[in-house]
Recover the amino acids of this structure.
């Protein structure tokens, strides 16, 4: 309810337009956290590859929960960063005979059988965030997220504009195909040299020491690209410890990243709009159940990438503070 109220307040400025968005805002304000539809109370399960304490997934979950309130959905959320455990959570959702499943495919080979069981059971599946290349093959209705290769290419282009010559791409989760695609996309468009650095993402001290050691040993590195917002601040500390002049850039956005952009400790961030991923995944499943609608025309529904710099950070600050960007 609190989230709904905040959203309504933020949309109030649109009311003078008299358009559909203004009308939706008025309806949301009137609903006060109650369902805006009278469709059956279907149950949707979202199962992600998130580890504990990852703020990115808090934002995804928040978006999904807000859409679930609006759509009169009983929403179940679970996660595990171990692929086999995540697959078991999908199996458990199938056993519960839920009405729809939203799932990430960070490690698609491990998830294929579980998704196939859901599809065979007649449960509509939407993939989100990772696994766009496998989504259709696995039988999902569609995929919602950013194309990781395109996002990586956007980073390479931005680094070229900034005159960077040697970039370090920090991979904090080995085996995550999306992370590999980001670094590969960066290499495709960057005119300079890219080196991948694999770190133990579950331990921030290890991440910091690994980046710091690399920056100390190679003074030619002038850009460090982290693949998740929580790692950006750690990279800044590593840069300071190494006495490096490298620019720190990152994928994803949160309040700390927005502050870093505004303060100049970070160069730019690549936003894939996680709130939108969660929100649209639930909304799409509801539309499918209610009206057999499928967005995307067989192609992924893209939520990014959007390059965020110091110039845009201030305007997004209030949204990052409330946890929706």
């Amino acid at each position: 309810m609190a989230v709904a109220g905040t959203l309504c307040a933020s949309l109030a400025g649109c009311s003078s337009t008299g358009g559909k968005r203004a009308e939706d805002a008025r309806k949301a304000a009137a609903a006060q956290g109650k369902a805006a539809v009278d469709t059956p109370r279907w149950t949707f399960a979202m199962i992600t590859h998130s580890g504990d304490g990852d703020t990115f997934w808090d934002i995804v979950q928040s978006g999904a929960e807000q859409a679930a309130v609006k759509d009169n959905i009983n929403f179940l959320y679970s996660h595990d960063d171990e692929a086999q455990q995540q697959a078991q959570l999908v199996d458990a959702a199938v056993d519960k005979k839920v009405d729809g499943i939203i799932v990430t495919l960070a490690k698609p080979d491990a998830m294929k059988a579980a998704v196939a069981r859901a599809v065979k059971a007649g449960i509509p599946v939407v993939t989100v965030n990772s696994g766009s290349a496998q989504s259709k093959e696995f039988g999902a209705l569609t995929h919602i997220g950013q194309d990781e290769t395109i996002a990586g290419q956007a980073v390479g282009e931005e680094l070229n504009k900034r005159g960077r010559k040697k970039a370090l791409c920090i991979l904090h989760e080995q085996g995550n195909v999306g992370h590999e695609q980001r670094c590969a996309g960066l290499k495709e468009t960057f005119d300079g040299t890219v080196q991948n650095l694999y770190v133990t993402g579950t331990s921030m001290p290890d991440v910091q020491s690994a980046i710091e050691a690399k920056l100390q040993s190679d003074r030619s590195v002038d850009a460090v690209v982290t693949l998740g917002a929580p790692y950006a601040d750690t990279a800044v500390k590593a840069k300071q410890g190494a006495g490096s002049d490298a620019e720190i850039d990152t994928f994803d956005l949160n309040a700390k990243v927005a502050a870093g952009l505004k303060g100049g400790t970070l160069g730019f961030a690549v936003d894939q709009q996680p709130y939108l991923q969660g929100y649209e995944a639930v909304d799409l499943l509801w539309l499918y159940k209610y009206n057999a609608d499928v967005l995307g025309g067989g192609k992924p529904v893209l939520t990014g990438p959007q390059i965020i710099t110091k110039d845009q950070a201030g305007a997004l600050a209030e949204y990052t503070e409330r946890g929706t960007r």
Q: What stands out?
A: Residues 1-31 have pLDDT under 50 and may be disordered.
